[in-house]
């Protein structure tokens, strides 16, 4: 599933980033540019991030 359309960031990419040790939205923004364009993906990205962290 694509989370951030502007930067073509999928849920899988976010999961990979979490596997690599990222834990916060600012870190995700820096690495993948999630939410840095229109910002519409912010809450979805946050939800995916939280789910990934809970599954760890
Ligand atoms: Fe992510 Fe636009 S959809 S910044």
In terms of DSSP E residues, the strand content is: 5-15%
Number of domains: 1
User: How are the strands of the largest sheet arranged?
Assistant: 1-2
- Name the CATH superfamily assignment: BFD-like [2Fe-2S]-binding domain
- Derived from helix and strand composition plus strand pairing, the structural class reads mainly alpha
Distance between the termini: 20 Å
Mean pLDDT: 97
What does this structure look like?
By secondary structure, the protein is mostly helical. The chain has a single domain (2-54), classed as Orthogonal Bundle (Arc Repressor Mutant, subunit A), CATH 1.10.10. Helix content is 54%, strand content 9%. It has 3 helices and 2 strands, in the order ββααα. Helix 1 packs across helix 3. Bound molecules: FE2/S2 (inorganic) cluster. FE2/S2 (inorganic) cluster binds at residues 4-7, 34-41.
List keywords for this structure.
56 residues, 9% strand, Arc Repressor Mutant, subunit A, binds FE2/S2 (inorganic) cluster, mainly alpha, two-stranded antiparallel ribbon
How is this structure best summarized?
This protein is mostly helical.
Question: Mind sketching the topology for me?
Answer:
Layout: E1 2-4, E2 9-10, H1 11-19, H2 25-32, H3 42-54
Antiparallel strand pairs: 1-2
Helix pairs in contact: 1-3
């Amino acid at each position: 599933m694509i989370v951030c359309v502007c930067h073509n960031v999928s849920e899988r990419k976010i999961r990979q980033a979490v596997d690599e040790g990222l834990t916060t939205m600012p870190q995700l923004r820096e690495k993948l540019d999630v939410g840095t364009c229109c910002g519409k993906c912010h809450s979805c990205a946050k939800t995916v991030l939280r789910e990934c962290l809970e599954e760890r």
